[in-house]
Amino acid sequence: MKLERIAQDLVHCAPLPDWVDHQPYPSEIPDTETSCIANGTCRLLNDIQVNLCSPEQAWHCRTAQRVLTREGAERVAHFVAEFDPGYQRIEIHFVRVIRGGERIEHAKLEAFQLLRRETNLERLMFDGRLTASLLIPDVRIGDVVEAGVTVYGSAPVLGGRYAAWVTFDGLNPWFEARHRLVRPRTRGIFVKEYNDPPKCTVAATSETEDFRWLIVGQQRREAEALTPPWLMLYPTLQFSEFENWNDVARLLASFYESAVLPDELVAEVDRLAGAHQDPAERAVEWLRFVQRELRYFAFSLGEGGLTPRKLDTVWTTRFGDCKDAATLYAAGARRLGLDACAALVSTTHGFALSEVISSSDVFNHCIVRLHLNEISYWLDPTMAVQSGTLQNVFQPHAGWALALRPEIADLERMGGDEPLHILHREDEVTFGPKRNSPAILRRRIDWSFWAADSVRNLIANEGTSGYSQATLKEMQALWPGIVETSPIEVRDDRATNNITLELSYEIPDCWKPNSDGSRLDFTIASGLSRELQLLPAVPRESAIHLGRPRKLTSYLRLNMPRSWQGDGWLRRFEASCVRYADRFSIDGRIVTDSRELTIDAWKLPAEETEEYNNVARNLQEDVLIIWARERLGKIRPWIGVKGRLLGGIGYVWYAVWAAWLLVVVLKILLASR
Length: 673
Prior knowledge:
alpha+beta, 10-stranded mixed sheet
């Protein structure tokens, strides 16, 4: 359908509906109110009103913003209203500039452009949403720009049920934020409050109830780095017309239970069944088949992104989104004699789902629940091809899931809480006897679980030579002259989902003089420093997001040109669920350094920020520097101290030695008096 025809049918300029209630708002605010000022504008009013009393759900929005700067004028002068033409229509009531006592109206249908922006197209998502756009002329500093629009309609698959969230945004607050919900008394709407939203006022008649919330002068809450995405930080209201999770499962399950596979796909499934008798093998081989053959592209038009396409369309086009892939996998798995169904999850709020009221709008992704031998496996057919057996294939999602079966009564907890050992790196460096002797570096890296899948797919896309070149470039930042001495060796154990890389290098001029030329240094890093981000040393409100629990280890062996001396160390740094250990030792010509980082949980309490930063700081001081000197053309230890961690034992020894020397000098001076 052409955009011009859509504009005629679905976009109108119209008077305010009778049910909308506009109350005055302050156009001037106290100078002390600065939270609502940003980007050259003052956000005066955000007024949302929802009407559930008509056959067609209506959502009305009224905004008012004062222009403070030229940049603010550029931002406010662009009015946009977005809708889904598959089931929504919009009415634009006014777009006006208030300048002194004058009101200049710009809401004329011929002035609008209808755009198909597809802002998520680069993420391979096409939803068909349209944007009514108007560039308001002659907007000046001091003007107030008001806009009012109503969107009608709701996703057909919901059968008219209402589900929504209202957040009084503390990151970008309005001076005055209002929310209104009008419902017939015959409709039961469940409401849950989070983070102390404003008190509700209710006006009731024999047929309707009118709920209103108002917040004035909300203070801005600054964003904090590493905030867990599932935390609800601002005053929030959740509305839902679903009584329980079974309500949601029964409504959606039928759309995902397709039993009709295309003939070509039936032949593939039967071939796989003949090649693999074990149910676990069938499950994981079928997963790899779908991941390999179905490319990801989300094509959601007219149904709100809640239901899959027909399987023959999915298979003919060989592309699909998460709903398509999950439905395809479940249908093939059932033909293989497996107990599988689609399951809804949230990639951002998975851990919070058990705390919200039952609703269809808390999910943003669809995967598969496979039940075998009384164990639930949570598989994602949209991922790049995964390796491993069913027992160790990586299951990427955590938190809670809703399996789409009519009999399902509640959410089910997924795994993902145990730390997985994803990386082990071993470096062996052999030094020659002289300063200009090149060092030989042999490196072995073992990747497991999701890290193995990522590296395997990277090599598949870039080739081993591309991977080698990228690795060499990274190492040249530390050793500019380093060269690769043999091709990379790749050992891929797909059954255990482990991939091992072996690399060999030569480092000319490995010994570098320090800043004053008094000694020679060899520098090497363990590669773990990027795992934790250092946070500002200020009081914190939200927990610290650590990511998926994991373990990373490194081991370094230095074969020195002669016997090396000095003390080692064992240093440990801990918070409640983050541990980092560094062990350094010297045994004759062998110098070793081993490090281990273990993260036991997804998040860390905010009150442990100082302990977390202590771990992160020491982890980021990742450089080991070996001190040496040149004597008679040979490399020798530096004054008996052979190695140090940057900021560590070498400085301590040197400080003690200097203090002792100072004491001796003072004693001599005092004795001479």
